[in-house]
Amino acid sequence: MKEEKNAYRKIWWKNKEKGYLWILWGVIVACLGLIGVIIVYILDQKMEIFEYPIQLVFYGLMLVLTLIGGGLDLIGEIQFNKAFHNHINKKDKK
After folding, report:
1. How would DSSP label each residue in 39-72?
2. What's the Cα-to-Cα distance from 51 to each of 6, 7, 42, 43, 55, rounded to whole Å?
3. Burial annotation 40-53 (CB, 10 A radius, 16+ → b, else e)
4. How far is 52 from 55, CA to CA, in rounded Å?
5. Sequence-ordered list of residues with C-beta below 8 angstroms from that of 14, at least 6 positions apart, any chain
6. Helix (H, G, I), strand (E, B) or coil at 9
7. pLDDT per residue as tens, the chain (94 positions)
8. Residues 33, 68, 19, CA angle at the centre, nearest 5°?
């Protein structure tokens, strides 16, 4: 079953089916949040640019950005699972 799901995922991704963009945008947004946290951390540790309360604001914003990215990815995965179950049901009926 797992091999079949991985094979279908490759076809689904190649054809850019429904949900493809949700996953893509989710990964991009989550990575931007992670990069933002790393940048703020490095700037604070090496240059001490940000004061403590401002750091928390930036970390909070990046956390929200990362959670939004995770949510977008989750929506895409749900759509993929629906498409996969539809594919399995069509295959079983034949």
Report:
1. HHHHHHHHH--S-HHHHHHHHHHHHHHHHHHHHH
2. 47, 50, 13, 11, 6
3. beeebeeeeebeee
4. 5
5. none
6. helix
7. 788 888 888 888 888 878 888 989 999 999 999 999 898 888 888 777 777 788 888 889 999 999 999 999 999 999 988 988 888 888 777 6
8. 115
Q: Which two tokens stand for residue 53?
A: 């309360």
Task: Tell me the two tokens of residue 47.
Answer: 């240059």
Specify whether the CB–CB gap between 69 and 26 falls below 8 A.
yes
User: What's the token pair of residue 60?
Assistant: 């909070």
